[in-house]
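Recall that a protein's primary structure is simply its ordered list of amino acids. Everything else, from secondary elements to tertiary packing, is in principle encoded there. The following example makes that idea concrete.
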Amino acid sequence: MARPVTNRLQPWPGVSRREFLRVSGLVGLAAGGGWALAGCGLSGDDDPAGGGGGEGGSKVLRMTFVPVEVLDPQIITNGMWILTRGILEGLVMQNDDGTDVVPAVAESWDISEDQLTYTFHIRADAKWSNGDPVTAGDFERTYQRLFTPSSGGAGGTTLGQNAYQSTTGIKGAVEYLNGATEDWSEVGVVASSDSELVLTLATPNPDFLLALTHPSLLPLHMDTVEQMPDEWQVPPNFVANGPYAVDDFVPNSSLSLVPNEEYWDRDNVSLDAIEITQVDPGAAAGTLTVPYENNETDILQLSEADVSRFQDDPELSEHLQAMETYSVGYLARLRSKHPALDDVRVRKALSISLDRQQIASVVPGAEPGLSLPHDHVAGWDERLVVEENLDEAKQLLADAGYPDGQGLPQVRILQGVDSPIVDAVIDQWNNRLGIDALNDRVEAGVYVERRWAVQDEDYIGFYWGTFAGLPTMPTYVGALWSPLDIQKFSLPGEIWGQYLQIEADSEMDPAKQAEQLNTLLSEHSSEGSRQMAELVSAAKAELDEEQRKEMYLQAARIREDEYLYFAVSWLSVFFAVRPSVSGLQLRRYPDFFYLKSLGLEA
């Protein structure tokens, strides 16, 4: 099979990734600190009774969603999360509570005795919205596009990067993506027939089926993608295979969906249309709730300030639904020419000085962020808890040469949208440690760029972010704040600058580029970050479930002790839901729910 030529990080010819992020709706993602809390909501029509519907009694559900620039699931953007809700459909889907999978395009599958080979049987009635059959070859061609080298490596969490999560474990995928091999036959993806797709893993992964629900592994109609490389996302060119097809798409503005009449389970799709308006998640509190309070919307995701107001209202409080402990709010070290935060004692002091219980009280539904994995992650253990100890924090600062904070530069927290949690952290650092701390609120596009840059000598601090993902240890240890992330964040500012220069060199041979980047990591990353990487690698290969679990816990504990990232709060997500809505199933996953099951009742 020929290697497809793609450039997924530069959607428009001649436009750099940096400029793309600056001018596109992708910056809206950064406002919340990460793609996992992409704002979303659903709304009905303008009927004061709030029953949904449209002309002639049709059932039209109107949604609000954060800005969507591209409809490509292989790039980390907001778009990948709207696609996986029901525009594109993968081999499997998550069940209602997100703890297991159910058949989707694959009606069944077989697993080899050594748990390395998965054979998926594509249902005969699966079709694309243009009437073409969905075949195993569509998946193989799509995955080859996904694994084709580009400037974004596997498992990244940066806007615009390749969306594949390396913890999925498909044999040879990371090597192909990183340019270490150009032989597609070495990758564990084979369409053995139109109806049979064989996926082979490098090592057993008990979470593999759940990992297949990640949007990066959704199929694309590759004939259209290859024939119309610049226009395949523009209706009527976009070809879907999920319950809904794209009728109209205006980037950063609107997205209109209609039922896919060719969908294999069309009888269980009850809505006549879904109208999606893309809105700024940073809009002032109360602004986005006006339509709901006027009985003009059916479901709406609420901001922290609006949740409090709804909770205090006797009628509106009855409309609240919550997914508790959905995500983690965290701080991540910014690289700087000043060495203060290169010292783990300083980072630890800033973390363990925090009264997380008090901080959690400033937003509805929050709990103290005791560790980077929250306690709803399968396999979580109290050994991961970071304990508050103000006396030790003060001693650590003194040992590092900053007694009572003296001599420590101003510590800033970079964020793209105001968060009361950040304000609470700054207040505690100022009052409990005596340091000078500042909320550095910037425009979202500036946030995206600055959090990866090397800061000037007079700038040290952290950036504020939120993350959610598949609530399993392989995801929360291997993909979110992964070993590679920790190694990168442990690099001193000067070395990180060199890393960025090599990474940005599009003329360099991919294999040589990977070699130079790996050399910097092996020579300059922290010992703890390398130990974490070794443990995660060993855990992936471990067949004994208890030993594997223990290895992931040890790796997670080492990561906590690096304090390059540290949790502040565990966060919940709230929706206002009108009684006319049926079939809403909230899950602990960044897409929140599937569109297929939604309905509107009189």
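The first helix runs from residue 17 to 23. The first strand starts at residue 40 and ends at 43.
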